[in-house]
Design brief:
Length: about 120
């Protein structure tokens, strides 16, 4: 006969949810790593996620990346470090606004942004 697993208390479930949320914030919003986590590993994972985001924006909006030059990824990562991602399109639009780069409002551009969402 199998022994039943002990049930978690509501408090334990709430604490786990809080720790998970803190870890997500550390990975995508620049918050410090929660207690009990390897801060260097969390920082490395957060940096990798920022590089991935920069790559997504560069692939989806190559003209934006080109307008920033060779250090696009560094500029984007510095800007995005404390901003959680919503969509690639909103990342591109907000970063362009931050960098003072006007994105075209042509029909093709609007169509492109709709496809991203």
């Amino acid at each position: 006969m199998r022994t039943p697993e002990p049930r978690s208390s509501r408090r334990e479930v709430d604490e786990l949810a809080e720790r998970q949320a803190a870890l997500v914030h550390a990975l995508v919003a620049g918050s410090p790593a929660p207690d009990g986590f390897d801060t260097e590993a969390v920082a490395a994972a957060a940096k990798a996620l920022l590089h991935k985001r920069a790559g997504e924006v560069a692939r989806r909006c190559p003209l934006l990346a080109h307008a920033c030059g060779a250090d696009f990824a560094e500029q984007f990562i510095a800007w995005a470090a404390d901003k959680p991602k919503t969509t690639t399109a909103s990342d591109a639009t907000a970063f362009a606004r931050h960098a003072g780069i006007a994105l075209s409002t042509s029909g093709a551009r609007k169509s492109f942004l709709r496809r991203l969402r």
